[in-house]
Write a structure and sequence with these properties.
Layout: E1 2-7, E2 15-21, E3 32-34, H1 50-58, E4 61-68, H2 75-91, E5 96-101, H3 104-111, E6 119-121, H4 128-136, E7 139-143, H5 151-160, E8 165-167, H6 176-187, H7 191-206
Parallel strand pairs: 1-2, 2-3, 3-4, 4-5, 5-6, 6-7, 7-8
Bound molecules: zinc ion.
């Protein structure tokens, strides 16, 4: 089974995918994460509605949520909204999918009160050092096509292995099975093995 840690569209047959969706489409996919994307936050902090909390109870995860230094409302507004979202996810014991652009330190500070939270850093393509720092803090990391072009990261994972690593299609058309096959070529390991390891990580992240 190939697993897609983060996508915005319905997966093809034979793929287990965590589909990130808003309230409007919730209930349309087998495995869903309820998003409140930092780009689409209001310009001032708002309370989360009861409707949102009830919807999260029906979803497998929260996300994508997060922090983006380059887009969205003022950064302190993003931080305040993230704090509210994380409190709700913790109450409901939901795993969380993070979008994070140039705000790793602030993200680590935001999750610090929740040591048992299952956390996914989606679209990871950073340095080997950041990869290790995030894994040390308990994050799962999902890689898209762009990560395969980062030679230091590829070399690092080849050496250290795929603990807490997965693959994602996000908003790209390339099916995750094909991405994993390409990744296997880049990492120099059998595609079946890479699919099996990342699928096990996917189940561990979602606890199913
Ligand atoms: Zn996404």
């Amino acid at each position: 089974m190939a697993s897609d840690f983060h996508t915005h569209s319905a997966p093809p047959a034979g793929v287990a995918a965590l589909v990130s969706t808003g309230l409007d489409r919730l209930g349309s996919f087998p495995l869903e994460s309820l998003e409140f994307h930092p780009w689409r936050l209001p310009s001032h902090p708002v309370e989360l509605t009861r409707e949102f909390a009830a919807a999260l109870a029906r979803a497998a995860a929260l996300g994508e949520v997060g922090l983006d230094r380059l887009r969205g409302p003022a950064f302190p507004v993003q931080q305040q909204m993230l704090d509210r979202l994380l409190r709700l996810a913790a109450e409901q014991e939901k795993p969380v999918v993070f979008h994070c652009v140039r705000a790793t330190a602030e993200l680590l500070a935001a999750v610090k009160p929740y040591p048992h939270m299952r956390k996914l850093f989606h679209g990871f393509r950073g340095s080997p050092e950041l990869c290790e720092e995030l894994r040390k803090h308990g994050f799962y990391l999902s890689l898209g096509a762009a990560a395969l072009e980062r030679a230091p990261l590829v070399e690092h994972l080849r050496r250290t292995g795929f603990d807490r690593i997965g693959f994602e299609t996000d908003d790209r058309p390339e099916p995750v099975g094909q991405l994993i096959e390409r990744a296997a070529g880049v990492f120099g390991c059998p595609a079946e093995q890479l699919a099996a390891v990342t699928d096990a990580n996917f189940r561990e992240f979602l606890q199913r």
